[in-house]
Write a structure and sequence with these properties.
Strand content: 35-45%
Radius of gyration: 27 Å
Helix content: 10-25%
Distance between the termini: 101 Å
């Protein structure tokens, strides 16, 4: 009886999957490097276009990494200054996207930011999370989300004091306006702003209004004629938008300041040629006297103490000090009025 010869298996079957994997890896790597090159070139084009429009853009140590699944652009000492004088600077800034979906980018500033307000000086912004995301770059209006978690605001020496010192969260969202096609609203943008558990500066208007408590606000509106948010003059993009008749419409919001609560609404708000808001906001307030009386006691030069005291007294008479009260907040002649009482300058867009 003879021994059976051992069965020999062909090894070619093992090499086929490996070969396919290597081919796919090479093809993907080629795609990644092509994409990285396109990102680098497009970034250079955008930067040069901004500089040609009067912006000052500077950075050092730019890198592109993230192979194989992401594209990550990093830079140090980033500074972007608008012709209006407003600026944003970051010691370290990164933007990244999935290599298979380069239409969505996330920007991260792990080491904080420095915000320069034209004519008011610089404010350092630090927090647990400072990031922004942009997607839908091929849309007429992309979707934008900005999020700050536990931010702390510190004014630089010589700068005007920032109204809040810290907050639980600050969020801003922009998206194309949700309206049926053909309604003429295709050039409008939906905006949602949230300020959660904000704390004011000592003796400032926010601290006075909240009576050492916290301020929470949620405001949503529609920006009409958003295609006019352009231009690079010293006043900024809102100046061209205002000259073209731009408006905030369908304004809705909720405010919570200490023990006071309010809901607000306005059919439309616009801006004067010098950038101050104009229009009327209807308020349905609960215990408003506490917040208004707190404003009257603040030593901030931005608050008209006599006007705030008069408004507090009128609110107490109207609502008995604790009931719901219907009020009208009016922006006109560059001032903010509660009934006939001037409270402060009207909010300024530019």
């Amino acid at each position: 009886m003879t021994d059976a010869s051992p069965i020999r298996h062909k090894r070619s079957g093992l090499f086929a999957p490996i070969g396919l994997f290597l081919i796919a890896l090479i093809a993907w790597s080629i795609w990644w490097f092509v994409l990285a090159g396109q990102v680098r070139d497009q970034l250079d084009v955008r930067v040069e276009a901004m500089r040609a429009s009067g912006w000052d853009v500077a950075y050092t140590g730019r890198t592109i990494s993230g192979w194989p699944f992401r594209v990550r652009v990093g830079a140090e000492n980033v500074s972007v200054t608008a012709p209006s004088g407003h600026a944003l600077a970051a010691p370290d800034l990164a933007a990244e996207a999935n290599a298979w979906n380069p239409d969505k980018w996330v920007l991260i500033a792990d080491d904080g930011l420095v915000l320069t307000r034209s004519g008011k000086g610089k404010v350092a912004v630090n927090g647990d999370v400072i990031r922004a995301s942009v997607h839908g770059l091929t849309q007429r209006w992309p979707n934008v989300a900005i999020e700050l978690v536990e931010p702390v605001f510190i004014s630089h020496r010589g700068a005007e004091v920032f109204p809040i010192s810290r907050a639980g969260r600050v969020e801003l969202y922009l998206r194309p306006h949700l309206a049926p096609a053909g309604t003429g609203a295709e050039d409008s943008v939906d905006v949602l702003f949230r300020l959660i558990d904000a704390e004011g500066r000592p003796n400032g208007p926010v601290q006075g209004m909240t009576r050492n408590g916290k301020l929470t606000a949620q405001i949503e509106t529609v920006i009409e004629d958003a295609d006019q948010l352009q231009g690079a003059d010293a006043a900024g993009v809102f100046a061209a938008w205002t000259r073209a008749g731009g408006r905030f419409t369908t304004v809705r919001g909720e405010l919570s300041a200490g023990d006071s609560r309010a809901t607000l609404s306005s059919p439309a708000l616009s801006a004067t040629p010098d950038g101050r808001l104009t229009g009327t906001v209807s308020l349905r307030a609960e215990k408003p006297m506490a917040a208004i009386a707190g404003l009257a006691r603040t030593r901030s030069g931005a608050v008209n103490q006599a006007g705030a005291a008069g408004a507090a007294a009128a609110s107490a008479v109207t609502g008995g000090g604790g009931d719901d009260v219907s009020l009208a907040l009016v922006f006109r002649d560059g001032r903010t009025f509660l009934g006939p009482f001037p409270l402060a300058p009207a909010p300024k867009l530019f």
